[in-house]
Amino acid sequence: MSERASGLLFVTLLAGLLTGCATIVTRPADPHLLDCLRDGQSTKEAVVLKLGQPSAILESGRILTYRVGQEKDRGYYLRDASATNWFELKFSLVLVFDPSEVLERHSLVQVR
Length: 112
Description:
It is built from two helices and five strands. By secondary structure, the chain is of the alpha+beta class. A hairpin with a 5-residue loop joins strand 4 and strand 5. Strands 1, 2, 3, 4 and 5 form a five-stranded antiparallel sheet that branches. The radius of gyration is 19 Å and the shape is globular.
């Protein structure tokens, strides 16, 4: 194997290892986290700016979902969209937007 090919293989393996070590971000619990959700008023842009990247986008962006946990006496927290499990999470936040991207309705659905 050439020196260049060996170097490329090393960089590729290192990148794979570092990707596997990525941490899952969980934001601190906030008792007012969901206060920004007002049916008929909140825009999709404002919601995504506040809550971040949704865990799922459905029906061409009309429906967004978030993985939500709850800490007793501290409020709700969101699991990062890149997380692959629902460990310790109790809710799925489902947001439905109208054609003008205004929140039509939202539900905090218990998953366990």
